[in-house]
Amino acid sequence: MNIQAYINGEWFVEPNAEQLSIYNPAEAKVYAQLPIASAKTVDAAYGAAKAAFPAWSNLPAAQRGDWMRKLADGIEARFEEFVAAESRDSGKPLHVSRTVDIPRAMTNLRFFADAATQFASESHSALGGSVNYTLRHPLGPVACISPWNLPLYLFTWKIAPALAVGNTVVAKPSEVTPVTAHLLAEVAHEISFPKGVLNIVHGTGLPTGEAIVNHPAVKAVSFTGGTSTGKRIAKNLAPRLIKYSLELGGKNPVLVFPDADMDEAIRTTVRSSFANSGQICLCGSRIYVHSSIYESFRDRLVASAKTLIVGPPEGDSKMGPLVSGPHREKVAAYVEQAQADGATIHVGGTELPSEGYYYPPTIIEGLSQDHVCFQEEIFGPVITLHSFDTEEEALALANDCQYGLAAVVWSKDIKRCMRLSVGLNAGIIWINTWLNRDLRTPFGGMNQSGYGREGGQEAMRFFSNVKNVCIG
Ligand code: NAD
Question: pTM for the whole thing?
Answer without folding.
Answer: 0.97
